Amino acid sequence: MSTPHHLTDLTGTPFLAVTLLAAVLAVLVPLAVWGRVRGPRAVRAGVRLGMVVVAQVSAVLVVFVAVNDQYGLYDSWGDLLGTESHVAAAPDLGADGTGGRDISAAPRVRQAFSPVTGDPDIGPGLRLTHLKGALSGAEGEVYVWLPPQYGEAKYKNTDFPVVELLAGYPGSARDWWGNLDVQTQLEPMMEHGEVTPFILVSPRTTLLPGKDTGCANVPGTVNADTWLSVDVRKMVTDTFRARKDADGWAVAGFSAGAHCAAKLAIEHPDRYRAAIGFSGYNDPAAEPDSIAAHDARLRRTTNPLWILTHARRPPRTSLYLTGEPKDGYDDGLALQRAAQPPTRVTVLPSTGGHRVTVWRPLVPAAFRWLSGVVGGPMGAESSTGKVKASQSGATPVSATGSSRA
């Protein structure tokens, strides 16, 4: 079964084409009937005013849809209107986000995926599923792209490393594909051996209407951390030939997603060996809609710099951070100054502003760096062990071997 792009979807060429056609008609129809309007003067004036208003609204709508399509701000009408929650429950899962459970002993989560078709904006090879997080209580779409080597016979018993791709806020799980062209940039590089053949995974990060989760766990509100670092991770390792050890996992993000990537990698070195962040920030209050921005304790404890400086021991993880002064670069330098081995932080300046057109060309260099940090494909028999508990004494979160695609 395929997943087509519908005319009513907020993102994609079809809806943009419909709104553009409506805007053109909103101009042409008044030109054709302006002098034919009949009735008393007040009626004629009202009808003509209404046509002008419709034309203006249509023009504004075209601009909004074009900008939304380019930047992936809102993925659905529910996201735009602030009426759609992706949280069914948010139990208290403790400091490590597992609720004290051994995730490796949990039932397998072998998910069915459909190929994404009819959406030329996000490129080829994507598959999509809707995941209900068994532990986090969150749910949403998850896109997966498999590297070209995945289907080759000589790799049939091989597990591949994984990179989780996180969007900004507001944002869509489509953004890395539609705006940063991640798979179309990396596929030829993987084929030529320039970068490691990674499985790329892009889960929904906007889980609450009108709020940025900051990838945090907040009992009673949302378990965004567990959704990303446990539920999505387990689904991928249960469904695909994916490595389960932390050396085979990384997380990447831009803007609010970069904040999340740094937070997850520093907080969970038992789950991620590295993070890439484009134009991120440390203080969650940099995003006014963050659920942590207005809570002093959350604002402190979800700050990657605070997590790093208060870790029981320096986490074994590596960060690759870019940005301009006051837009990611300074915060990256703060992390770099605070880092002690084995934590490693690479910070590079960028120019051009806070936009996808700046981040898109940064992808190849970032993934070249990542290829030197995260392990490559591994024989399945070597990738079935449990991940070590986190430095805070967390329960292992990786699943043991299973029959996978």
UniProtKB/TrEMBL annotation:
Residues 381-405 have a biased composition (Polar residues). One of its GO terms (molecular function) is hydrolase activity. InterPro entries: AB_hydrolase_fold, Esterase-like, Mycobacterial_A85_antigen. Keywords: Hydrolase, Membrane, Transmembrane, Transmembrane helix. It comes from the Bacteria. Signal peptide: none annotated. The chain crosses the membrane at residues 12-34, 46-67. Residues 378-405 are annotated as: Disordered. This is Alpha/beta hydrolase. Gene3D superfamilies: alpha/beta hydrolase.
